[in-house]
Amino acid sequence: MRISVIGCGYLGAVHAACMAELGHDVVGLDVDEDKIAKLAAGVAPFHEPGFDAVLKRGVESGRLGFTTDPAAIADAEIHFIAVGTPQLSGRLGADMSYVAQAVRTIIEHAEPGTERPVLVAGKSTVPVGTAQLISDEFDGSGKNLVLAWNPEFLREGYAVKDTLHPDRIVYGLPDDVAKGEAAREVLNQCYATMLEAETPLVVANYPTAELVKVAANSFLATKISFINAMADLCDATGGDVTRLAEAIGYDDRIGPKFLQAGIGFGGGCLPKDIRAFMARAGELGVDEALTFLREVDTINLRRRDHAVRLAEEVVGGSLSGKKIAVLGITFKPDTDDLRDSPALDIASKLWAAGADLAIVDPAAGDKLRERRPDLRVPETLEEAVTDADAVMILTQWRDFVDLDPTSIRDLVAAPNIIDGRNVLDPKRWSDAGWNYYGMGRGVSIW
Ligand SMILES: NC(=O)C1=CN([C@@H]2O[C@H](COP(=O)(O)OP(=O)(O)OC[C@H]3O[C@@H](n4cnc5c(N)ncnc54)[C@H](O)[C@@H]3O)[C@@H](O)[C@H]2O)C=CC1
Ligand SMILES: O=C(O)[C@H]1O[C@H](OP(=O)(O)OP(=O)(O)OC[C@H]2O[C@@H](n3ccc(=O)[nH]c3=O)[C@H](O)[C@@H]2O)[C@H](O)[C@@H](O)[C@@H]1O
């Protein structure tokens, strides 16, 4: 099929390349010229495991192209909307201006459907009610465009795998049966490989599909804040939240995933999605239904202050002039994404409190140097930890999780390790002469 993907960021670029991998002819459109130049040359503009190979294969096959020219989307049978919906500055709601612009681009440049309607599939995460508004706009455009809402659930770090082998596919279809069936048929053709592999398919109306997406992210955020609240209780009592999570996770109804306590969630989605969801609930007059999300957000942000306070205590009260080595600055491992990164937020707070910071990250070093020239980003971990009063692991990159505590013991000024992600073995680090500080991990002989 001929496909266009509008917006080639972390979601859209991967979606475009994976659609080409499935055999479709794909053009990716973006307004960012640098990004498009790289993508068109088969070079990934961001760090995402496995993406380089799929991108290169697609571009070399001739089935995958990237452009800033909106006219290039004209003959696509499906247009995917994958532009950003970031948090509005100073407000909880989502900035919908990029989606509005993408819709205008489609109306202006898409060839009208003749034999069957041309499908537009929304993938961006949007406030519930958006799909109906866009659908109404298409109806007034005279272009025979039909909208489906097809939310995306990929995780950064696993984006290629999640796109090609999703846990489920969701179609949000219009209430008009003929249009809905037409949309379903086109989507079935697009996702034939996945449907043949018996990927669960949930078909629903627009609001359900839109809500599924924000409900899923809200649930994940709630799970993380829940375990972080338990970490506070563990800190207050000497309990170990990692054991607690393991024990409750054996219950199938709870499950072991997303129970890793630490410095909390960040990224370009979970934080802004729960806030936009609360804002939308307010507009709908049902804000009380989501007041718990306010607490989820508050608990999450408190983790960052908690980490700063812990660092303060560890170095003896004042951070001023204290040398802190920060290992990991991205919002999670296996990405270079710094959007709402808890690690970067904590580092900024430490810096503001006068700490002498040295930050290393396997993927985001250059990006950080560019964005924050005020922060020191040495080339090597050894340089960063030399003479440190405390070492903090803020993103659990494999290199840091596997770090041999003896290998850096003699480089630091004081052997203090703060494990912001609860990924180290406290005994191993203590045995190597370190003072280990986790997040809700009391000292236990068991
Ligand atoms: N990053 C992720 O893992 C996932 C993101 N999402 C959702 O997908 C959407 C996109 O997210 P990301 O890819 O992370 O954002 P991003 O910021 O990485 O990418 C958005 C892209 O859209 C481009 N853009 C903006 N206006 C445009 C226009 N008028 N025409 C063409 N391109 C335009 C930007 O230049 C940028 O490259 C958001 O709504 C997000 O919530 C959903 C699931 C996963
Ligand atoms: O809508 C989106 O964009 C995506 O948001 C999340 O994916 P992602 O942001 O890539 O990252 P996650 O793996 O969900 O992690 C989010 C944050 O939670 C933190 N986290 C995760 C799990 C955990 O147990 N504890 C914890 O603190 C991570 O460190 C990270 O900062 C969802 O997992 C995806 O399903 C969704 O598609």
UniProtKB/TrEMBL annotation:
Catalysis: reaction(s): UDP-alpha-D-glucose + 2 NAD(+) + H2O = UDP-alpha-D-glucuronate + 2 NADH + 3 H(+)
The UniProt entry's GO biological process terms, in alphabetical order, are: polysaccharide biosynthetic process; UDP-glucuronate biosynthetic process
Q: Any idea which GO molecular function terms this record carries?
A: NAD binding; UDP-glucose 6-dehydrogenase activity
SUPFAM superfamilies cross-referenced by the UniProt entry? 6-phosphogluconate dehydrogenase C-terminal domain-like, NAD(P)-binding Rossmann-fold domains, UDP-glucose/GDP-mannose dehydrogenase C-terminal domain
The yes or no answer to whether the keyword Ion transport is present is no
Q: Where is the UDP-glucose/GDP-mannose dehydrogenase C-terminal domain?
A: 325-426
- Record-listed NAD(+) binding positions: 30, 35, 85, 125, 156, 272, 339
TM segments?
A: none
What EC class does the entry list? oxidoreductase
Q: Binding residues for substrate, per the UniProt record?
A: 153-156, 213, 258-262, 266, 332
Pfam families the UniProt entry points to: UDPG_MGDP_dh, UDPG_MGDP_dh_C, UDPG_MGDP_dh_N
What EC number(s) does the entry state? 1.1.1.22
Tell me the keywords, alphabetical order: NAD, Oxidoreductase
Establish whether keyword Oxidoreductase is in the entry. yes
Top-level taxon of the source organism:
Bacteria
Identify its protein family: Belongs to the UDP-glucose/GDP-mannose dehydrogenase family.
The protein's name is UDP-glucose 6-dehydrogenase
Which lineage is the organism of this entry classified under, starting from the top rank? Bacteria, Bacillati, Actinomycetota, Actinomycetes, Propionibacteriales
